[in-house]
Design brief:
heterodimer; A: mainly beta; six-stranded mixed sheet; 8% helix; globular; B: mainly beta; 3 helices
Chain lengths: 146, 156
């Protein structure tokens, strides 16, 4: 997985970085159709005839039942042409990094089961956490519904 | 009779631990730490130190009594995961600055029942009495291991 061009997904003081190449679309949260059918999701993001389970997280990565009003955007991510999930957020930007020199792997003592955080990064005076699509899928989507 | 140099760390109101003299790198009063989401509650923040992120452990959180961060001290310790591997660092949050002590063989005692029944039993090498308080000598390598992390998360 390429980790040199990253999408920066900001919410509740967190800057979550995911591979830019996995970004399918960025929509307004108003495009989320509320649904209780998807476990832990706030609904489904609909765009161009496609659909992504939509999740809203807080700074502790707890899955919220409702999307906070300050979350204005929803970023949709895909893996191998499969629409896997979307995350509601306050802001989206992009960032180029040098993975070898800048990304610091999370140490063993912090890797709780299912912790999607894989690397840490301090850049432009911002502390950021880096994950990958597979790890976020494992974290967000309960096994039974994959 | 032999004597060993060690550092005494007050990790909570009733949790005293000791580490080897050679393991202490430095201690810092009230540094800023970054929270890492989805991490174990006893190790959910990092300290930026010499361009590396060092995990910060709050052992009192294992007893649901986390240390008040505003007044706390961070003790940076060296450990070596395996022979011929480079030294790594871990940070332990304490109530106050650590104290350098000398421990004599006669002070050694059995682990208390409360430690034996706690997650720390996995990382406790032995203990000794310091005046009237038991002090647990901790194996830092084990404390930083995936096995300890898994044993704690399985118990919670």
């Amino acid at each position: 997985m390429e980790l040199d061009n990253l999408a920066v997904i900001s919410f509740d003081g967190i800057h979550l970085l995911l591979p830019q190449q996995s970004v399918a679309t960025i929509e307004m949260v108003s495009n989320i159709e509320k649904s209780s059918e998807i476990p832990d999701a706030v609904g489904s993001l609909k765009s161009g005839g496609r659909s992504w389970p939509a999740y809203a997280l807080n700074a502790q990565f707890e899955k919220l039942r409702e999307c906070p009003p300050i979350y204005k955007f929803c970023i949709a991510l895909s893996r191998n042409n499969e629409d896997v999930f979307s995350i509601a957020c306050e802001e989206v930007s992009t960032l180029s990094v040098n993975p070898k020199n800048e990304l610091k792997p999370l140490q063993d003592s912090m890797k709780a089961p299912n912790n999607p955080v894989q690397y840490l990064l301090l850049k432009n005076n911002k502390f950021m956490i880096v994950s990958e699509i597979d790890a976020m899928c494992d974290f967000l989507i309960p096994r039974a519904s994959v | 009779m032999s004597t060993s140099d060690a550092w005494l760390l007050e990790c909570g109101d009733s949790l005293l631990i000791a580490v080897g003299d050679h393991q202490m790198v430095e201690y810092i009063q009230g540094p800023f730490c970054y929270s890492v989401p989805a991490s174990p509650s006893y190790c959910d923040s990092v300290l930026l130190w010499h361009d590396n992120f060092i995990p910060v452990m709050d052992l009192a959180a294992l007893y649901d009594q986390p240390i008040d961060q505003t007044d706390s001290v961070i003790c940076l310790l060296n450990y070596q995961p395996a022979a011929n591997e480079p030294l790594l660092q871990i940070a332990i949050r304490t109530n106050k600055a650590p104290i350098k002590i000398q421990v004599e063989d006669e002070q050694v005692c059995e682990l208390s029942d409360s430690i034996k029944a706690s997650p720390l039993s996995f990382v406790a090498l032995t203990s000794f009495m310091m005046e009237i308080s038991p002090v647990v000598i901790i194996d830092i390598n084990k404390l930083c291991s995936a096995e300890f992390r898994d044993s704690v998360t399985a118990a919670t």
